[in-house]
Amino acid sequence: MTEEVLFKFERRMDRGEIADYLRSVADALDGGDPVSLESGSDSVTMDPPTRPTFEIKAEREVEGSGAAELSVEFELEWDEGESGDEGDGDLRIG
């Protein structure tokens, strides 16, 4: 499978700023609206189906020096033209 990056943005921010961006995405999803991303001259608009696959991943990446980088990734996935289907188990976030 070949991967094509349609949009990428990375910058250090305050937690409150990040929460504002996540709320904007959540509001678009809740309203059934497309999600638009824009930074400088780069932009993309995606319209997730009613039931995309939701993936959360928490990782620890250890470098050769022993330093570790922690991350939490939130991902929505769907096949083009598909409406999504049932997943396994329940999720709790707190």
Structure in words:
- It is a single chain.
- This protein has one helix at residues 15-31; strands at 35-39, 42-46, 53-62, 68-77.
- It is an alpha+beta fold and 94 residues long.
Oligomer: single chain
Order of the strands making up the biggest sheet? 1-2
Q: What share of residues is helical?
A: 10-25%
Task: Write down the overall geometry.
Answer: globular
Strand content: 25-35%
The overall average pLDDT, rounded, is 89
> Uncertain regions: pLDDT < 50 for 5+ in a row?
none
Q: Count every beta strand, where a strand is a DSSP E run of 2 or more residues.
A: 4
Largest sheet: 2 strands, antiparallel
What's the helix-strand series? Answer: HEEEE
Q: Quick gist of this model?
A:
This protein is of the alpha+beta class. It has one helix at 15-31, and strands at residues 35-39, 42-46, 53-62, 68-77.
Write the layout of secondary structure elements.
Blueprint: H1 15-31, E1 35-39, E2 42-46, E3 53-62, E4 68-77
Antiparallel strand pairs: 1-2, 3-4
Note the main attributes of this structure.
single chain; 94 residues; alpha+beta; two-stranded antiparallel sheet; 4 strands; globular
